[in-house]
Every structure is written in C-alpha cells, then in structure tokens.
Amino acid sequence: MLINSITKQYSRSVALKELSFEFKQGEIVGLVGSNGAGKSTLMKIIAQTIQIFNGSVEGNSSVGYLIEEPKLFSDKTGLAHLSYFSKIYGNKFKISEYEELLKSLQLFDVLDKKVKKYSLGMKQKLGIVISLLNNPSYVVLDEPTNSMDIETSLEVLQQLKKMANKWNVGVLISSHKLEDIETICDRILFLEKGTILEEQQFSNKNQYILKLAFDNYADLATFIDHQELGRIIHSSEKTNTIKIETTAENTEVFQFLNQLGIKLIDFTTEKKTLRNIYMNKVRGEYHDI
Ligand SMILES: Nc1ncnc2c1ncn2[C@@H]1O[C@H](COP(=O)(O)OP(=O)(O)OP(=O)(O)O)[C@@H](O)[C@H]1O
C-alpha cells in the first residue's frame, strides 16, 4: 500500500501534513505518537472512513479495521456478530476458518454469550476478529489493546502476528503501550504533528545506546575518526562526550578503545528500547549530554 503525500485539514487544525510511506502485506507496522499526532486520522483515511483529504492512497481496496470502540450490539452473542459482519461482507461465516484464532484469543468458548457479558478487553478481541473477517489484505487497528491487561495484550498481539504471517495480512497498529508495539512490529513510525518524525526498524540483534565520556577533545576526535561501532547520535566538544547506537557488546567496545589506546572517564550503556528512542526523539533527549 502506498500512502502518498496526504494532507488532512480539519476546520481548526491540520491533522496530517504531506505524509508518505509504503507498507506491504505480511508486514507489521507500528504507529506511535502523542495525543493529537494524527494516528487515528491516518488510519481512517486508509480505511476509507475519511474520504476527503489531499494526496492519495494506493492499494487500500481490501482493508479491515478497528478504529476507536468496536461497534457491537450488546444483546447479540459473539457468534451472531461474526455471522452478521460476514453477511455484510457477502460471506457466510465459517467457524472452522477462525477456530484457531478464536481459541487462541479465548473467545471460542464464550461465542454463545451476549456481548453485554463481555469485558472491554473481550469486546476488543472480538473487534479484532471482525476486522479480519473479509480476508483483507491489510488491517488497521487503532489502539486495539488499550482495555487489556499487560499479559492479555501481549498474548493477543502474538496471535495477531501469527495470523498476519499465516494469512499474509499487512497490519498497521497504533498504541500508547510502547512495549506492545515493540514486541510485534517489524517497523515503527513516530508520528508527531501530522508528519513522520522518524522510522525505526527493530532487528533481532540487541541494540544499545552507548554514552562515552573522554578525558580530552583529542581522544574524542581520534575515536570519531576511527570508530565503526555504529551510528553517532550526538557528540559534544564541550563535554568531550559522544552517544552512539550500536549492536556491539561492551567487551567489543573496550577492545576497540584499547587498540586505539584511549581511556574513558565515563561509560554508560542502555539497551535500545522503543521507550528510550521515543523519549529521545519526541522529547529531544538525545541532546542531554
Ligand atoms: N473530527 C474532527 N474534527 C476536527 N478536528 C479533529 C477531528 N478529528 C481529529 N481532529 C484533530 O486532528 C488532530 C489529529 O487527531 P487524531 O485523532 O488523528 O490524533 P491521534 O494521534 O489519533 O490522537 P490520540 O492518541 O489522542 O488518539 C488533532 O489536533 C485533533 O484535535
């Protein structure tokens, strides 16, 4: 799917500004950003529930979605919902196709219960299954786990990832729970004020953010000239410090410093997590050294 220079203006505010990106079937893309960053607006445009905007979206003819609260009928059972929404899509609901998913989400045994007896988390899970009913090529899920406890949301997301791989569905998912997003996403987009501020890819290898403090500027300069440990995020000639993003383990870093004959006066390392990248990017804390 190609999202091509989208701008969305509401009467009082610009929600999206010339935003572009591409995502593929089978890929899981996370969307994070503060309140009002434009996440829901972007998802509604992809799901075609907002149709007036500038720019274009290509390849979004088959999109399932769960945006805001799932629209459910309290007096109908879970199964009645699945049949009803399948019918809307022109299909007959075949429970055998969804049995594995429903069981893994712990919904299978409560399908004959009325939805008013469901917890909020169960309603969200049912909403996720409904979004997948039409065999879509893509689904967009706006905070699908916000009513779930930590354990449930991790379980649900793992199942979603499994289904996305099995059915080759592209998933765009937003959440304020950064740990959730980090667990399942191949790629994460940071949205702020209607534009993509940063894109992060999470590899299977551990990544670290190193902060090194040198005794003098000459040592810092030598290090910068020779280092191939990773990407320099920030360096300061005032404090003789540097921040680097790397996959190198500490022992490797120390070996390298030994080879250069440089001694540090301070060294800290933290694992690169979505939370610290988000804090760094959105709050500008990369520049706190
Ligand atoms: N129907 C609307 N009418 C007018 N302005 C709107 C409307 N929907 C959203 N906005 C504005 O557009 C901007 C983006 O809102 P949006 O809901 O897309 O952000 P969001 O990232 O999903 O936020 P949240 O995390 O709070 O759900 C905000 O400034 C919001 O006030």
TrEMBL record:
It comes from the Bacteria. Keywords: ATP-binding, Nucleotide-binding, Transport. It comes from Gracilibacillus halophilus YIM-C55.5. GO terms for molecular function: ATP binding; ATP hydrolysis activity. Residues 1-218 form the ABC transporter domain. This is ABC transporter, ATP-binding protein. Belongs to the ABC transporter superfamily. PANTHER family: ABC TRANSPORTER ATP-BINDING PROTEIN, ABC TRANSPORTER ATP-BINDING PROTEIN NATA. Pfam families: ABC_tran. The keyword Cell division does not apply. Signal peptide: none annotated. The keyword Metal-binding does not apply. InterPro entries: AAA+_ATPase (IPR003593), ABC_transporter-like_ATP-bd (IPR003439), ABC_transporter-like_CS (IPR017871), ABC_transporter_ATP-binding (IPR050763), P-loop_NTPase (IPR027417).
